[in-house]
Amino acid sequence: MSKFNDIIQAEKPVLVDFFAEWCGPCKMMAPILKEVKANLGDAVTVIKVDVDKNPEAAQQYGIQGVPTLIVFKKGNIKWRQSGVVPAKQIESVLKNI
């Protein structure tokens, strides 16, 4: 958890994808997140957290369903959305934080 906490303290936005291997919609998010990273490059950090392997992280942030995307900046939650989210919407959120 300490490495995760270090990452989300960053000055630039950190997009965290809480997912599970067995989750169909989570698999749909993978190419969307690749597109977001390709379009925004180093302006954003994108990390994936498997809720089954990291239950304490899921519990700490009250993850009820997957996928859940959370954008952190300097450790604060700036945006949160569950379900499959289009790349353009994610990029818009990240550009305006």
Overview of the structural elements:
This protein has 97 residues and is of the alpha+beta class. It contains 4 helices and 4 strands; from the N terminus they run αβαβαββα. The chain has helices at 2-8, 24-40, 55-60, 87-95; strands spanning 14-19, 45-50, 68-73, 76-82. It has one domain: Glutaredoxin (3-Layer(aba) Sandwich), CATH 3.40.30.10. A 4-stranded mixed beta sheet has the order 2-1-3-4. Helix 2 crosses helix 4 (87-95).
Furnish the topology, listing elements before pairings:
Elements: H1 2-8, E1 14-19, H2 24-40, E2 45-50, H3 55-60, E3 68-73, E4 76-82, H4 87-95
Parallel strand pairs: 1-2
Antiparallel strand pairs: 1-3, 3-4
Helix pairs in contact: 2-4
The CATH topology: Glutaredoxin
Strand content: 25-35%
Helices and strands: which structural class?
Answer: alpha+beta
Separation of termini? 24 Å
Are there runs of 5+ residues with pLDDT below 50, and where?
Answer: none
Summarize the structure.
The chain contains four helices and four strands, in the order αβαβαββα.
Top keywords for this entry?
4 helices, alpha+beta, 40% helix, Glutaredoxin, 97 residues
